[in-house]
Amino acid sequence: MTQSPDTPNRSAGRESRRAAFEWIRRILRQGETLEDAGAAIPRLRDLQPRDRAFARLLTTTVLRRVGQLDNAIARCLDRPLKGKLNAVQDLLRLGAAQVLFLDVPAHAAVGETVALATGVRVGPHQGLLNAVLRRLVREREAILADQDAERRNTPRWLWQAWCETYGEETARAIAAQHLQEPPLDISVKADREAWAERLEAEILPTGTLRLPPGSGDVRRLPGYGDGAWWVQDAAAALPARLLGDVSGRHILDLCAAPGGKTAQLAAAGATVLAVDRSKQRLQQLGENLNRLSLAAATVAADLTEWTPPQPAEAILLDAPCTATGTLRRHPDIARLKRPEDVPSMAAVQRDLLAAAAQMLAPGGTLVYAVCSLQPAEGSEQVDVLLQSRNDLERVPVRPEEIGGLSEAITPAGDLRTLPCHLGERGGMDGFYACRLHKRES
Ligand SMILES: C[S@@+](CC[C@H](N)C(=O)[O-])C[C@H]1O[C@@H](n2cnc3c(N)ncnc32)[C@H](O)[C@@H]1O
């Protein structure tokens, strides 16, 4: 299963690989996120869009496949590389990703990776790089046939947690989606069919417009500059829908930035008060809404210390989380998150959910959402809340509210999308959402 990059010419290709090498190291060795690390690499900005896309594909392929890459490299070494040779290991990962998973000619994958060694001060190891990569070219088919790709590329703690929660077959289907570049998903303000035709997009049963992976720079697509649509994963578009018809209603959008769901609510005719503690992210929300010619009032505040002007009739709380449901789009997360992040996020979510429940008016609806696959951040939060308050009750999600996606509704009636849902059409992010109603008295 190789991917065909739009391969740049030789000198641009070398610059793309150099940028990818730096990108990989910032993420895997310094713990930076894919987006932050990318923004901090000046040579990446200087590349042409096609070459930048190649650098990104190299980087995300290493992140998606690092378990298989390390195993394949280890098979070609007599003994493991010493810790201080981690730059050699990362160069090998970069070269092996091209040999094993990208449709790059073998001579370019090997030659260009070896050539990079001098520039990154591991010149004396060129012989080793050359020997390992050439052996990978020769033994590619046999090595790949002998690897359990889904399991090898999934951190052990996540694999175990998903097997426990969803069963091994589903854990494997989830992990399989993480190996693919994801499609581009779009939410439109209006005229869905017309935009689908113009963008040559498929319309998913949930209403999202879907373009194939590698659709290029979104800012160059028709309608972006005119603010006709915004990028939003199909699953991310579902929680706000659980508030029903919001036209003319006042909605409290908690943890709102950068505003994907605020845009959805405003486009559906709601009057939105968007609250987030990050001023910088709220500024981004403002810019996003401006482009879309949509409006929302904003408040920069920590929810645990803030009270709304009056109790709210409808609340969406899209809480911060480990984001383990978004590994298709953010493969760095698999490499950066640790098991201990789950309980620490769960503690934050518990306080935010308790605060949101307090803001709700009698008769009102609260939707709690996270893009995590871990139950401790999803259904277990709701269980804790319902144990401590008897004025709240679940209102089960109905399949017709989410485009007939009945496999994404739990026995308790919550929304639980998995990356393998709509798998044959490119999958979707893993979102959890629960709808709660506050009794009148
Ligand atoms: C998952 S993101 C929200 C995404 C957003 N709803 C959207 O659809 O684009 C979580 C947000 O929660 C905010 N946040 C985290 N802790 C918070 C707190 N104590 N009070 C308010 N906002 C908080 C973060 O700044 C972040 O923007």
UniProtKB/TrEMBL annotation:
One annotated GO molecular function: rRNA methyltransferase activity
E.C. no: 2.1.1.176
Residues that hold S-adenosyl-L-methionine according to the record: 255-261, 276, 302, 318
Localization per Swiss-Prot or TrEMBL: Cytoplasm
Top-level class of the enzyme under EC nomenclature: transferase
Primary subcellular site in the record, as a coarse category: cytoplasm
Record keywords: Cytoplasm, Methyltransferase, RNA-binding, rRNA processing, S-adenosyl-L-methionine, Transferase
Domain named SAM-dependent MTase RsmB/NOP-type: residues: 146-439
GO cellular component: cytoplasm
Enzyme active site: 371
Keyword tRNA processing recorded: no
Source domain of life: Bacteria
A GO BP annotation: regulation of DNA-templated transcription
Catalyzed reaction equations: cytidine(967) in 16S rRNA + S-adenosyl-L-methionine = 5-methylcytidine(967) in 16S rRNA + S-adenosyl-L-homocysteine + H(+)
Classification via PANTHER family: NOL1_NOP2_SUN FAMILY PROTEIN _ ANTITERMINATION NUSB DOMAIN-CONTAINING PROTEIN, NOP2 YEAST -RELATED NOL1/NOP2/FMU SUN DOMAIN-CONTAINING
Family per similarity comment: Belongs to the class I-like SAM-binding methyltransferase superfamily. RsmB/NOP family.
Primary role: Specifically methylates the cytosine at position 967 (m5C967) of 16S rRNA.
NCBIfam families linked to this entry: rsmB
Protein name: 16S rRNA (cytosine(967)-C(5))-methyltransferase
Organism: Ferruginivarius sediminum
